[in-house]
Design brief:
It is a single chain. The protein is of the alpha/beta class. The protein has 3 domains: about 200 residues, NAD(P)-binding Rossmann-like Domain (Rossmann fold); about 90 residues, NAD(P)-binding Rossmann-like Domain (Rossmann fold), CATH 3.40.50; about 140 residues, 3-Layer(aba) Sandwich (Rossmann fold). About 45% of the residues lie in helices and about 15% in strands. It is built from 17 helices and 14 strands. The strands form 3 sheets. A 6-stranded parallel β-sheet has the order 3-2-1-4-5-6, with helices on both faces. Strands 11-10-9-12-13-14 form a 6-stranded parallel β-sheet. α1 packs across α3, α5 packs parallel to α6 and α11 packs antiparallel against α12. The chain is elongated.
């Protein structure tokens, strides 16, 4: 079976590589020649655990290919996935120009029946626009070639994308024909042989499922952060509250950890897009508007604690920051709370030293030379008045507190992920601030 995947970003590269892993002939397409050249040399455009090894293995086996030439690559393919970006516009709506552009190009070059699948996260109704783009391109060629358009949203967690694709909780597919359903069912057969369900539905429902899923998870995060803030006011401990509600099977213990807010490429963009879509249809998503507002406020909580402790003027103060990416096991800095927190410190005159296991290069694109980039977590504490834990990388979980005391000028820790035990930190002589605990 042969397929093409247009787009070699996070979703496209993971999708194409995982399909190749089960024996499918895959060509990943991108207009960025440098990115394609780098992939041919084994240089990954993103960091994702296990991806580099899987790419190299499947290239070596001759199952995974990279090209800028969609015209030649699409010949003989049964399925074409569209996995290009849908960046948010200023009003929060998803920009579909890349998705529709690929649809037109597919129509210009396809020569036989094809299932065109939107893998990008797109608003409800986008597949109909893709269908029109393909049809218009075919009409321009005066070609009568049958095709179907389907929606197959991704549910990949950055840092665990390989496992999520190979061992999915579920596969959601929106189709309009039995023929398309049969082909996609065949394509995904290797991933459902162990009982993972493939859920076929109409196209609009599939498109909505993606937005609804991410918005629900974002809602859980903002709800817990709201509870954490109230716990501080009332003298309750959110760590205990979380355990108390998480043991309820109706609620569960996932996505109820308080922190400094969500970030990344999915939650912020998808919540905004769903709110915008609702407004366009005369409906107000009141809960999601609050989810977004709480999250934006939460990104300031940790720096507010710093300001409350040290005062508004942070001139002459040095802060060591541990963690820059929006979550562990990724180098993704999009909408990262660290950027907001660090900028809040910098504009008050502070000096910032920072370390992240994999996101240092990406951080430079956003923070430039406004901070000092350290070689390791302890170097970031040299003469620091305080340490801020922003991203809960595993290597930060059991720090050497005595070494920290030796390096730091001050004895203050601001824990934005509630990683440490209050009594242990205080035993080593630190003043300790966390989220949701007074």
């Amino acid at each position: 079976m042969k397929i093409v995947v247009v787009g070699t970003g996070y979703v496209g590269l993971v999708t194409g590589t995982c399909f190749a892993e089960v024996g499918i002939d895959v060509t990943c397409i991108d207009i960025d020649q440098k990115k394609i050249d780098n992939l041919h040399q084994g240089i990954m455009p993103i960091y994702e655990p296990g991806l580099e090894e899987m790419v190299l293995r499947n290239v070596d086996k001759g199952r995974l290919h990279f090209s800028t030439n969609l015209k030649d690559s699409i010949q003989g393919a049964e399925v074409a996935f569209i996995a290009v970006g849908t960046p948010p516009g200023e009003d929060g709506s998803a920009d579909l120009k890349y998705v529709l552009g690929v649809g037109r190009e597919i129509g210009e070059h396809m020569s036989d029946y094809l299932v065109v699948v939107t893998k990008s996260t797109v608003p409800v109704g986008t597949s109909h626009k893709v269908k029109k783009a393909v049809a218009d391109a075919l009409a321009g060629r005066k070609a009568q070639i049958p095709f179907d358009v389907a929606s197959n949203p991704e549910f990949l967690k950055e840092g665990a994308a390989i496992d999520d694709f190979l061992k999915p909780d579920r596969i959601v597919v929106g189709t309009e024909s039995a023929r398309a359903e049969e082909i996609i069912g065949k394509l995904y057969k290797p991933f459902v042989m162990n009982g993972h369900p493939i859920l076929f539905m109409d196209v609009p429902s599939a498109e909505m499922t993606k937005y609804a899923a991410n918005s629900m998870l974002a809602t859980k995060i903002s709800f817990m952060n709201d509870i954490a803030n109230l716990c501080e006011i009332m003298g309750a401990d959110v760590n205990l509250v979380r355990k108390g509600i998480g043991s309820d099977a109706r609620i569960g213990n996932k996505f109820i950890y308080p922190g400094v807010g969500y970030g990344g490429s999915c939650f912020p963009k998808d919540v905004k897009a769903l709110v915008k879509t609702a407004k366009e249809h005369g409906y107000q998503m009141r809960i999601l508007e609050s989810v977004e507002a709480v999250n934006e406020d939460q990104k300031h909580v940790l720096s507010n604690k710093v300001i409350k402790h040290f005062g508004e003027d942070l001139s002459g103060k040095t802060f060591g920051v541990w963690g820059l990416s929006f979550k562990p096991k990724t180098d993704d800095m999009r909408e990262a709370p660290s950027v907001v927190i660090i900028n809040n410190l910098l504009k008050r005159g502070a000096k910032v030293l920072a370390y992240d296991p994999v996101a240092m290069s990406e951080a430079r694109h956003q923070l430039h030379d406004t901070i000092t980039y350290s070689k390791n977590q302890y170097e970031a504490l040299a003469e620091a008045d305080a340490m801020l834990l922003i991203t809960e990388w595993p290597e930060f979980r059991l720090p050497d507190f005595e070494e920290m005391k030796r390096l730091m000028k001050g004895r203050v820790i601001f824990d934005g992920r509630n990683q440490y035990d209050t009594r242990e930190v205080q035993k080593h002589g630190f003043t300790y601030y966390s989220i949701g605990v007074r």
